[in-house]
Amino acid sequence: METFGQRLRQLRMKKGLNQMQLAKGIITPSMVSQIESDKAKPSYHVLGKIAEKLEIPLDELIGNLEMNLVIISEYRLAKGMLSAGEFSGALPFLKKVIQTNNGKLDPFEIRYDYAFCLLQLNQLREAEETFQQLLEHAQSKSGSLILVVRVYHQLGQVELKRRCFQIAEHYLKKAITQLQSSNLKDVHLQCSLLLAMAEIQQKSGQLKQAVVTLQLALPIFEEREDIQGLGNLYMKLAQSFHVADQYEQATDYAQRAQWCFEALNNKSEKLTLEVRLAVLQGEMGNRDKAISALESIVEDYRRLRRDEEAGITVTELAKLYLAGGKLDQAEEACQTARKLLPTVHSNQAWVARIQAGISQARNQQTVAVKYMKQAADCFKLTECHTEYEETMQELSRLYESHNDCQSALRVMHEMWSFNRQAREQRGIVL
User: Fold this and answer.
1) For residues 113 and 74, is the Cβ–Cβ distance under 8 A?
2) Nearest alpha-carbon partner for 158 in 122, 196, 108
3) CATH number of the domain residue 281 falls in
4) What is each CA distance from 28 to 46, 74, 249, 262, in whole angstroms?
5) Distances from the Cα of 368 to the Cαs of 40, 103, 312, 337, in angstroms?
6) Measuring CA to CA, which residue among 321, 312, 307, 324 is closest to residue 350?
7) Do residues 154 and 126 touch, judged by C-beta distance below 8 A?
8) Average pLDDT for residues 100-123, to the nearest whole number?
9) Helix extents (H) in 37-144
10) How confident is the model at residue 410 (pLDDT cuts 50, 70, 90)?
C-alpha cells in the first residue's frame, strides 16, 4: 500500500503543482520534500491547508492511514537510519519489517530499501539478488516503470563497486533510456543517473564522455534551482577538466562552484573548492600564491577539526614545496600529512611519492626506492590503478638511472601482471 508521502506527491503532480507552489503560505518547500519522502509527519492543521491548496477533501488526502503503528514505527526508524548512513543499524529493522508487514506497507519499497542497505554494507551478492527479484516484479504487468529505472540504477551501483565498469554502464544506460522514453518527470532521479554515469565513465577512463554527461545535467540542476547540487556538479566538471589538463575550463567551473557554495555559506564545501583553485594556480605557475592560499586553508580545516581534509591539503602543499625546491618544508609537510590522514588512504601514497622525490633531490637512492615502493603498495591497496602504474614506471626509471636494469625490468613485469589481472576483473580483456 502507498505511503502518505507517495499519495501527497501523486496528488500534487496531478494538480500540476511543484513543491514550491504547494508549500507557499503553508510550510517551506524543503518540508514538503521531507513529507513526500516520508521523513516528516505534518500536523492536522497543515494537512487541512494542503487539502485546500489541492482542492480536495481532507479524507481523500489522508486516505487509509490506519496501519499497524509498530510496523510503521520500525520502518520509519530504519528509514531514518538509512538517511543518517547507519546501515548496520537499519538492516535488522528492515528484515523484521519484511517478515511482519501485513500488506499495509508497500512490500517492494521495503525490499528496495533492504537491498540498498545491503549494497551500502558491501554485501553485493545479496544486494544483487534482491534487486534482480525487484526487477522481475517491476517489469511485470503489475509493476512500476519508475521502480524499473531505480533498480537499474542500483544494479549499476553494484557493478561499480565491483569495478565492472562495462556492466555498470550497461545498467545505467538502460535506466536513462527507460526514463527518457517514459512520460515520467523525476529530475532528482534523472540527475542521480547522469552523475552515476559520469562517475563510471571517469573511472573507466572515458574522460571526454564523462564531461559531456556532466554537462547534460547542468540545465536540469539550473531548472531545479538546486544551488547545492549545482555547486557539486560544477565541482565534478572542474575535476574532470583538470584531469584532462584543460586548466582554463577547470578554473572556470571551480570558480562557478565557489560562487554556489558561497551563496549557501557552506564552509566545508567552499574550502574544498578553494583547495582545487589553489592547486590549479600552482600548476599554472602561481606557486607562491597557491602556497599562501593552501596554508590558510589548512588552518581553517584545523579550526573545523577536519583532519582528513587538512591532511589532503597539506599533501598538496608538500607537492608545491618540493616543486619549488623547498625540501625541508616539504619533508615537514609530509610528516604532518601522515599524522592527519587515515592509515589507509590514497593520499598516504602521495606522501610517500613526495618523500621519494625529496630523497632523490638529496641523492639518497636507497631511501627514494623505499618510499617509491611504499607509494606503489599504497596505491594498489587503495585501488588507484593509474597512480599505481605511474609510480611503478617511476620506480623502474629510478632503478635504471643507477644501472640496475634487472630490478627495473622486474618492476615493469610486476606492473604488467597486476594491470592484466585488474583488467580481467573489470571485463576489459576478452
Assistant:
1) no
2) 122
3) 1.25.40.10
4) 11, 27, 36, 22
5) 57, 65, 22, 18
6) 312
7) no
8) 86
9) 44-54, 58-62, 69-83, 87-100, 107-120, 124-138
10) confident
Q: Which amino acid is at 288?
A: D
355/418 same-domain check: yes
> Is 250's pLDDT higher than 60?
yes
Distance of CA 72 to the CA centre of its chain: 30
CB 197 within 8 A of CB 211: no
Do residues 140 and 171 make contact, with C-beta atoms less than 8 angstroms apart? no
Q: Identify whether 1 is part of a domain.
A: no
Cell, residue 208: 571526454
What is the per-residue DSSP string for 219-253? HHHHHHT-HHHHHHHHHHHHHHHHHTT-HHHHHHH
**CA angle, residues 48, 51, 54, in degrees to nearest 5:** 155
Of 341, 366, 397, the domain-final residue: 341
Please say which residue of 317, 341, 365 terminates a domain.
341
Give yes or no: residues 429 and 350 share one domain. yes
Distance between CA atoms of residues 52 and 429, nearest Å: 61
Q: For the chain, how many structural domains are there in total?
A: 2
Asked if residues 362 and 330 have their Cβ atoms less than 8 Å apart, the reply is no
Shared domain for 317 and 402, answered yes or no, is: no
Q: Which residue has the cell 534551482?
A: 225
403: which DSSP letter?
A: T
In Å, how far from its chain's centre is CA 107? Answer: 28
Grid coordinates standing for 411?
618492476
User: What gap in Å lies between CA 7 and CA 59, rounded to an integer?
Assistant: 12
Cell, residue 323: 616543486
pLDDT of 29-75, one tens digit each? 888 888 888 777 776 678 778 988 998 876 677 654 544 456 766 77
Q: How many C-beta neighbours within 10 Å does residue 340 have?
A: 21
The range of the structural domain enclosing residue 295 comes to 245-341
**Pair 311, 283 in one domain:** yes
Q: For residue 194, is it within any domain?
A: no
Structural domain includes residue 56: no
Query: What is the pLDDT at residue 225?
Result: 61
Longest dimension (CA), the chain: 86
**Alpha-carbon span 55 to 32, nearest angstrom:** 17
159 found inside a domain: no
Please tell me the distance from the alpha carbon of residue 187 to that of residue 221, in angstroms, as a whole number: 8
Burial label, 146 (beta-carbon count in 10 A; 0-12, 13-18, 19+): middle
pTM beyond cutoff 0.85:
no
CA–CA gap between residue 32 and residue 5 (Å, rounded): 9
